[in-house]
Amino acid sequence: MTRRTRRVEGTMIVQRRAVTAAVAVATLLLTAGCSSGDEAGGAPEGSTSPARTAAQSQPSGASAGPTPPAKGSVEVVRTVAEGLDSPWGLAALPDGGLLVASRDEGTVTRVDTGTGRKTELGEVPGVAPEGEGGLLGLALSPDYASDHMVYAYFTSASDNRVVRMLYDAKKPAGEQLGAPDTVFRGIPKGFVHNGGRIAFGPDGMLYAGTGESGEEGLSQDRESLGGKILRMTPEGEPAPGNPFPGSAVYSYGHRNVQGLAWDAKQRLFAAEFGQDTWDEVNAIEPGGNYGWPEAEGTSGSSAYVDPIAQWSTDEASPSGIAYAEGSLWMAGLRGERLWRVPLDGTETSADPQPFLEGDHGRLRTVLAAGGDKLWLVTSETDGRGSPADGDDRILELEVR
Questions:
Q1: CA within 13 Å, CB half, 184
Q2: Which key words are in the record (predicted)?
């Protein structure tokens, strides 16, 4: 049962079926020239089949073995917490709690997943929220058990940067975050396209998805940190084995990366916003060029790595992704649904499937919770939604 009738840019969202390639081409020709508000939307209402293409991605340390069979559906088990303000980043604590970042307030809050109780750890100094910028991604140190460090990606007055802070739960609420230690700085900032997702990979390195801050040319400039996936040590140095010596750049030609996840074979996948036509999920190759702004979606050119799946922008506008039970799970903002992308190696084994369409509004972040469980964060209070009582929420999902 849907929570309420959902509308985006005045158009009712309805379930759509896949159409043929010929109809998709005709639709694109008719709608050419329409511009996107990125997270707010892109192409007019329409339907296309998510495309499937081959791509290769084998980061160092990838393990052998068969890909586990993918389970086929997802259901909401319960509401974990509600009343969150512009939630964005999410990190799971070893004791079962969750840390959630408020983009606009610049605060980090601990959520007790059993009771839903919220405790504000503190405000991150230096956060300058504006547009799509603010306090964004969160990640725990690989050595969190001993160092209790929380990493955060945020927009400052001058750039986007990554910091780390000591979390001391013994201190009073509101004073539990230590002073931020800047790990990495100089990522271009803008009113839009700030990227913001960070995650530690299976190799212990810190990965960051960045945006081109509205300046398209930065994506193809390997000297710029905008429109990239970055790979660095926990101290912020370019990681050993990066494709470009002395650089943190791991892949380039991206528009706005807000989703990072690894599969059971330790292969990296990323979700990013398109402009007018295609949103993408990509299998990431070290040194790969993903085409923006020269290509959006599948290009067929040997110069660029094609996505493994793509959607019209009104169906997705993707932010977070997670891997569980043989599939990637992708949160859609304008699309207001959770996409399942079943994997077979670095290709999709079947067409992506939508779930929860319109049930909970805009969806920002999805995080693997272990086994067949996922955490899902809604995004109705980010200035582009239609918040109702209780928004925003963290939901617990079960993959079946």
A1: 29
A2: Signal
Q: What is the 3-state secondary structure (H, E, C) of 66-84?
A: CCCCCCCCEEEEEEEECCC
At 39 the pLDDT is 59
- What's the rounded Cα separation, in Å, for the pair 148 and 163? 14
Here the tokens at position 59 are 């980061």
Alpha helix stretches (DSSP H) within 58-214: 144-147
Whether 338 maps to a domain, the answer reads yes
Per-state percent for the chain, helix, strand, coil, to nearest 5: 5, 35, 55
pLDDT at 72: 84
Cα within 13 Å of Cα(151), Cβ side: 26
Element (H, E) at 244: none
Count of domains forming the chain: 1
Tokens 């230590």 — which residue? 178
| Farthest CA pair distance, the chain | 62
CATH number where 156 lies: 2.120.10.30
pLDDT of 71: 75
**Cβ atoms of 162 and 189 closer than 8 Å:** no
**d(C-alpha 373, C-alpha 342), whole Å:** 16
In the prediction, which pLDDT does 70 show?
Answer: 67
Q: What is the pTM of this model?
A: 0.86
Question: How far is residue 143's CA from residue 145's CA, in Å, rounded to a whole number?
Answer: 5
Please give the Cα distance from 217 to 219 (Å, whole number): 5
Q: Alpha helices of the chain — where are they, by DSSP H?
A: 21-31, 144-147
Q: CA 115, CA 231: separation in Å to the nearest integer? A: 36
28 within a domain of the structure (yes/no)? no
Domain extent for 172: 69-287+315-399
In the chain the first and final C-alpha atoms are separated, in Å, by 19
Divide the 400 residues of the chain into consecutive groups of 10 and give the mean pLDDT of each group: 35 31 36 42 34 36 52 93 98 96 98 98 98 98 98 98 98 98 98 98 98 98 98 98 98 98 97 97 98 97 98 97 97 98 93 97 98 98 97 97
393 to 161, 162, 175, 196: CA distances (angstroms): 27, 26, 24, 20
Peptide bond preceding 392: is omega within 30 degrees of 0, i.e. cis? yes
Is 59 among the domain residues? no
**Which is it for strands 327-332 and 338-344: parallel, antiparallel or unpaired?**
antiparallel
Note whether residue 304 is domain-resident.
no
Is there a contact between 207 and 250 (Cβ–Cβ < 8 Å)?
A: yes
DSSP state of 256: B
CB 232 within 8 A of CB 184: yes
